[in-house]
Amino acid sequence: MKCALFPSRRRKKVRSKDNDALKKYLEARKRIVDEALKQYVPGDDAYPPSLCKAVRYSIFAGGKRLRPILCMAAAEAVGGDSDAVLPVACALEMIHTYSLIHDDLPAMDDDEYRRGRLTNHKVFGEGMAILAGDALLTEAFCLMASGGAVAGGDGKRLLTVIHEIAHSAGLFGMVGGQAVDLESEGKEVDSETLHYIHTHKTAALLQVSLRAGAILAGGGPQELTGLTQYGAKIGLAFQIADDILDVEGDVEVLGKETGCDGERKKATYPALIGLEPSRTRARELVDEALTDLSSFDECADPLRMIARFIVDRTS
Ligand code: GRG
Q1: Is the CB of 82 under 6 A from ligand 1?
Q2: Would 74 disulfide with which of 46, 97, 214, 309, CB 3.0-4.6 Å?
Q3: Domain interval for residue 301
Q4: Which atom of ligand 1 is nearest to the CA of 255?
């Protein structure tokens, strides 16, 4: 699919029309990702059944599918075809879901609800939840590395993408950010440490989702630089918005408990600089992200809308 779903130039006119268009766009993309995931994730009848059930329970619990959507939108922003990047987009969702399952474990955040339902370990037990996360992470790389992952695609580009995703998800990315977050609980953290946690725990996977889509679709160096900078800004804005939602979000809409960061004395923007300055910072980051896209044409309009959605979202 090439840059067609989105009404473009009339964007300035009415904000509520924008919201409707974005809603439709996100719903349509989510459906595509969900259908593809059904192909890539083993069925309930696969062996071993308990592990497959635990994997399916979390991956089909109804997340926003933001990382795959960003990957597809980035491919289109550089003039590519989003269908061609679907396997990698789905692999990113599998990595994200593994991180949520592990993040909810008693040894980490010990959460009871996620995506509007009981957390994986509450239903399947701690051991099986750890294994479901492990399986999703490993299967994600299996899917990306499998020959047909990017049909007719360039093997060298795919290898670059797999390497970048591993780097962003691992020790020097999401896992590193989670480690510093874990160690910082109950402690006063400075803004540098908070920045490290947010950029690694959350922004790294969002940013690499964009880079992966653009690299696979043959984006040039300038396009990649713009998308990388956009990714860093929206990644940080996303986490600040998440911190704000933990303070004042609606439990029903969020599908998980609120107030958890405060209870655990977590390092967050609202705790460090206050709610209103956090809101201002998130909006500044979105404006900066939009500037990073200034050299892109209307094929990048979904990314422009997503940037706004990231700070306006309620879940
Ligand atoms: C366990 C290695 C490891 C990492 C965990 C993802 C993560 C790192 C922690 C989750 C904690 C958290 C609430 C982080 C804030 C940002 C975030 C990743 C929120 C959840 O992502 P969404 O809103 O979730 O995209 P859905 O359910 O819509 O996919």
Answers
A1: no
A2: 214
A3: 15-312
A4: 27
